[in-house]
Amino acid sequence: xxxxxxxxxxxxxxxxxxxxxxxxxxxxxxxxxxxxxxxxxxxxxxxxxxxxxxxxxxxxxxxxxxxxxxxxxxxxxxxxxxxxxxxxxxxxxxxxxxxxxxxxxxxxxxxxxxxxxxxxxxxxxxxxxxxxxxxxxxxxxxxxxxxxxxxxxxxxxxxxxxxxxxxxxxxxxxxxxxxxxxxxxxxxxxxxxxxxxxxxxxxxxxxxxxxxxxxxxxxxxxxxxxxxxxxxxxxxxxxxxxxxxxxxxxxxxxxxxxxxxxxxxxxxxxxxxxxxxxxxxxxxxxxxxxxxxxxxxxxxxxxxxxxxxxxxxxxxxxxxxxxxxxxxxxxxxxxxxxxxxxxxxxxxxxxxxxxxxxxxxxxxxxxxxxxxxxxxxxxxxxxxxxxxxxxxxxxxxxxxxxxxxxxxxxxxxxxxxxxxxxxxxxxxxxxxxxxxxxxxxxxxxxxxxxxxxxxxxxxxxxxxxxxxxxxxxxxxxxxxxxxxxxxxxxxxxxxxxxxxxxxxxxxxxxxxxxxxxxxx
Length: 520
What we know:
InterPro entries: Osmotin/thaumatin-like_sf, Thaumatin, Thaumatin_CS, WAK_assoc_C. The protein is an alpha+beta fold. It is built from eight helices and 28 strands. It is globular and about 95 Å long.
C-alpha cells in the first residue's frame, strides 16, 4: 500500500466471513509512506482508506470518512459510507484472483490497484483516480467539521435509502435495478470502477500469480488505460451525455443542478426533476415553469417540446399571465400558433362556442379562440375579466371541438415546440478540435472544455493527435536523411555533368582538326 496523498490515510481492512485473517485490520500511513503486507492464500475481503482521523480526550479513535466504528486504528467491522473500496478474492491453489474498485458505498479518495507480475487476458489496472469530491452533487456531499471542504461523496443509496437506488425490494434484480443519474456521475468519471450494485462485468479484473500495489491518491501521470493522461474531471464529466427524468442522452447546452454542473451547459438551460425517472424534466423560462417532453439535439435545428406546468393537468390556472420566452435563447418554430384563453366571462343570451369550465371572478364561463380571431372584434363576444395567450402546435386548434374541456387539456399538454440557441458555431468548432462544449459558470461565456484546460474557442491541436516525442524524433531523422540524399544526388549530378562537358569539348576539338575548317 502506497500513500501519495498530501495527508495521512489510515487503511482499514475487513476479512469476509470464512476467510483467513489478514495480518492487520488497520494502521496509519503517512504521506509518502509504503507498507508491504502478506495476504493469506484464498483471502477474501475489502480494503479502504480512512481520512481525517483523530483521538478524542478519552482515547477514542474516529474518522470523518471510512470510519469502521471500532474506536481504534484496527477495525473490527466494515467501513461507514462513503468510502472508496478495493475488493479482493484471492484464488489460491493456482486459481485466478478477482478484484475490483467499488464506488457502490460512495467515494472518499482516489485509489488505484495495479497488478505486479500477474498473467491473464483481463489482468489490468483498475480504480478511480479522479477527484469526485470536486463534482459531487450537493445532496450527496460529506463536508469537513468546519463545513468548508467536501471530503466525501455518498452514493444515492446512502443518501436517500430508496429501493431504486439501493437495488432492493422490487429493484433487487439486474433487470429492474438500472443505473441512476447519480451513479452515472461516478461511471462517467471512473469507467472501470463499480458504480452501482449491478454494474457491468467490465468493472472486474482477474489475475493469476500476481502481487498488487494499492495507491491512495496516485500521481497525475498514473492513469487508467481508458483515460487520456490529460483528462481532468470537468472534461471527463461534461463530454458524456446525461439522463434527466425520463429523457435520455441529453447533452450541451443542458445541465442539471444535482447531476451535471452548470459548466457543462449554459445559463437558462437548467433541467430539474431529474431524479424522478418516471416523470418529465422541467425548465424555467422567464419565470414560468415548463414540462419538457422532447429534446432534439441531433439535427442542425436544435428544438425542444415544452408545455406550461400550471396548465398541464387543467386549463384552469391561478397564474394568469401570457407565455413569453427568453428570445436571446429561444424562438418559436413555424408550426406554432397562439391560443387565447378567456376567463371570468359574463353569461350571454346565446351559448358561447369553444367554451370550457373554470371558476374565475365568481363565474365559471371560459372560452378559447386562436390568434386570428383574438385580434378582431367579433359581435356577441362575451365580456371576460382576463385572458392569457398560450402557444400550441398549429394543428392543435383544428382538432378541438366547440365545447370540450378535455380536448383543451389535451392540446395544452401537447405543448409547443421552440428552437434553442447556444453558440452553435463555436460549439461545432470546439467539437471538431476534440473538445466538448461548456461555459464559464460565472459569466456564461462559451468555453471549449479540453483535456488539460478550457479554451475560449478550440482545443490545441496537440490534443487531437497521437504524436509523442518518439514520433517527432523519427520524423526529424527521416527528414534529415531525405534532405541529405537529395543534396548528395545534386552533387553527383553536377559532378557527372562537368565530366561529360569536358569529354565533349575534347571530342569536338579532335573532330575539327581531322576535317579542317568549314566553308560558309
